[in-house]
UniProtKB/TrEMBL annotation:
This is Extracellular protease. Keywords: Hydrolase, Protease, Secreted, Serine protease, Signal, Zymogen. Residues 181-464 form the Peptidase S8/S53 domain. Residues 490-536 are annotated as: Disordered. It is found in: Secreted. Belongs to the peptidase S8 family. The active site is at 190 (charge relay system), 250 (charge relay system), 430 (charge relay system). InterPro entries: Peptidase_S8/S53_dom (IPR000209), Peptidase_S8/S53_dom_sf (IPR036852), Peptidase_S8_His-AS (IPR022398), Peptidase_S8_Ser-AS (IPR023828), Peptidase_S8_subtilisin-like (IPR050131), Peptidase_S8_subtilisin-rel (IPR015500), Peptidases_S8_13 (IPR034176). It comes from Cellulomonas soli. Residues 1-29 form the signal peptide. CDD domains: Peptidases_S8_13. One of its GO terms (cellular component) is extracellular region.
Length: 624
């Protein structure tokens, strides 16, 4: 009955490539595996189970009733059973239903047929009336549950630790029960793409925006061909002391993480497999110019770039798995601001220098979602940048423990010019970034009205607590399932209101604009807060300041016994720190002690699971 809180466990590693930054180029944000040979490929993994389509679980024709004193295997007398049936019929009659005993359960409850399919909410109402009988211990709908998304049949799914329902995985299977990203374009601003068989069907449009022919390595400047000719280099080609490198096929790897075709019995699964990738080529030999990258952000988001045809496939999400050292330059910041004004979320790699992200651009620009990387244990990867400008962390791999601890995705066998399709493990914040970009696409697909600010806020507020040391890695670990659930309940932020006290005794009434942490209703300790769950997508936040050393206790009581609401507690960074998810008719309580040396603000969140909404969807929070 709770939102899925997935475990997060596994490994990450890769064979990657990094280009050193110069004063005129922007480097790729991937990092080579220590001691790994470029081109090392993993062995094929066995096929997994084919996916099943979810069905609508919103009706049932049965009721479960547990009578006090009835033990498993005992049989009530005929008179008692007749009375029970009559009472259920009385409760069901307003809904045109009846009552017929079906069987007893192994736990001593009875299953009753109502004779017709009813909405689960109607059966809950019948159950509430039946449960009012003092001889009844409990009554509840006999719900029809449905198969959730199973693991796809992509042959390398078993190797994609980063997507699993584990302590360090994203839980994409649960997210896919809501959406797979249909209707959303994600721009991969990178080296271009190869038409890999496992991702080509999800490539749409694109453009080569490299203006310098030396960097482009394709014999010309800007054109409509965003395919990747290779970015190999020779010794000293890019700078004195430069080491020769093979082609990275970096953009193809990133694109596969986002939207590899899923359920096709081939290779890997993409995180947003129904989304489309718009490849925008800006990186070539030695990297790419800031001016080209800035134009790419504007063009990809639907803006106008002189001399370039309009983008027929504007992107709602921009993936920039690239970066260089230095402060945020004006050119990049202006482009980011323009892209956001066009409605695009800009997701940027924090960088691979194991240093503060404040010195890495464009991750240090305003308005971006800056992404750090964690490895197989959930701890910050040895290479990942960190700092207060990081928004959250995602799987990027840490190959110090073996190459299979990287991020597996689509690649090409060519060491210089293109070869054949393959797959390879890479590591880097370059690999973490498309995880976030793809989840952002899932969120927007589920709720197209979300703004870039809302997506960023919900990504952070839905992130899971770190399971290992990841200091200065942002709000937490990316979680696809909870992010999508949050997006479905997200609304447009409005200025923080001032709740109206209804009595001098400290009772506070919900403002109805408190659907995010940014617009949480303020409350004090002690106080009583009353609110309403207006619909199944509604969620309410209340902020409470807590002095150093003090303990906060929040108790949630629904207004009607058939309502099932869940209670969550977050810290000021948006990390979830406590949860209570009991069933209908039960009281939820969370407790947390501020062990810091200064006062801190915590956020209680009430989230709908099932039952009453609207005028009957009331609840009370006792805050102490």
């Amino acid at each position: 009955m709770t939102l899925p809180t997935h475990a997060r466990a596994a490994a990450a590693v890769a064979v990657g490539l990094v280009l050193a930054s110069t004063t005129t180029t922007v480097a790729l944000a991937a990092v080579a595996a220590p001691g790994a040979a470029p081109g090392t490929l993993p062995a094929a993994a066995p096929a997994a189970v084919a996916p099943a389509a979810p069905a609508d679980p919103g009706t049932t024709d049965r009721l479960i009733v547990k009578y006090r004193g009835q033990t498993p295997g005992s049989t009530p007398g005929a008179t008692v059973q007749t009375v029970r049936g009559n009472r259920i019929e009385d409760a069901a009659a307003p809904y045109g239903a009846g009552a017929e005993h079906v069987r007893d359960t192994t736990q001593g409850a009875q299953v009753w047929s109502l004779g017709k399919d009813l909405a689960v909410t109607d059966v809950q109402a019948i159950a509430a009336q039946v449960a009012a009988d003092p001889t009844v211990e409990y009554a509840e709908p006999d719900r029809l549950l449905q198969p959730l998304a199973a693991a796809p049949d992509d042959t390398r799914w078993a190797d994609q630790w980063d997507l699993k329902t584990t302590a360090v995985g994203l839980d994409v299977l649960t997210a896919w029960d809501t959406t797979r990203g249909a209707g959303v374009n994600v721009a991969v601003i990178d080296t271009g793409y190869r038409p890999h068989a496992d991702v080509a069907a999800n490539i749409v449009g694109g453009y080569d925006l490299i203006s310098d022919t030396t960097v482009s390595n394709d014999g010309n400047g800007r054109d409509t061909d965003a395919s990747d000719p290779g970015d190999w280099t020779t010794t000293n080609q890019c700078a004195s002391g430069w080491t020769a490198t093979n082609s990275s096929w970096h953009g193809t790897h990133v694109a596969g993480t986002i939207a590899a075709v899923t359920g096709n019995g081939l290779g890997v699964a993409g995180i947003a497999p129904a989304a489309k990738v718009v490849p925008v080529r800006v990186l070539g030999r030695c990297g790419g110019y800031t001016s080209d990258i800035a134009d790419a952000m504007v063009w990809a988001s639907g803006g106008t770039v002189s001399g370039v045809p309009a983008n027929a496939n504007p992107a709602r999400v921009l993936n920039l798995s690239l970066g260089g050292s230095g402060t945020c330059d004006t050119t990049s910041q202006n482009a980011i601001t323009a892209a956001r004004a066009n409605g695009a979320v800009v997701v940027v790699a924090a960088g691979n220098s194991n240093t503060n992200v404040s010195g890495s651009s464009p991750a240090n620009c305003s308005g971006v979602v800056a992404v750090a990387a964690y490895g197989p244990t959930g701890a910050r990867a040895y290479y990942s940048n960190y700092g207060t400008l990081v928004d959250l962390a995602a799987p990027g791999g840490d190959t110090s423990g073996g190459s299979s601890n990287g991020i597996l995705s689509t690649l090409n066998t060519g060491t210089t010019t293109p070869g054949s399709d393959t797959y390879a493990y890479y590591q880097g914040t370059s690999m973490a970034t498309p995880h976030v970009a793809a989840v952002a696409a899932l969120m927007i697909s589920a709720n197209p009205s979300l703004t870039p600010d809302q997506v960023e806020t919900l990504l952070k507020s839905s992130a899971q607590p770190f399971v290992a040391t990841c200091t200065s890695c942002g709000a937490g670990m990316l979680d696809a399932a909870t992010a999508v659930a949050a997006a479905v309940g997200g609304t447009t932020p409005t200025p923080t209101p001032t709740p109206t006290p209804t009595t001098p005794a400290g009772t506070i009434v919900e403002s109805e604009a408190n659907n995010s942490r940014a617009t949480a209703d303020p409350a004090t300790r002690p106080s009583t807060f009353t609110g309403t769950i207006g619909s199944s997508s509604d969620t309410d936040y209340v902020s409470v300041p807590v002095p150093a050393g003090a303990t906060l206790t929040v108790t949630l009581t629904a207004g009607v016994s058939t309502a099932d609401y869940d209670l969550y507690l977050y810290n000021s960074s948006g990390t979830r720190i406590a949860t209570s998810t009991y069933g209908a008719g039960q009281v939820d309580t969370v407790t947390y002690t501020n062990s810091g040396t200064a006062s801190a603000t915590y956020y209680a969140r009430v989230l709908y699971y099932s039952g009453a909404t609207g005028t009957t969807g009331t609840y009370t929070l006792a805050i102490s």
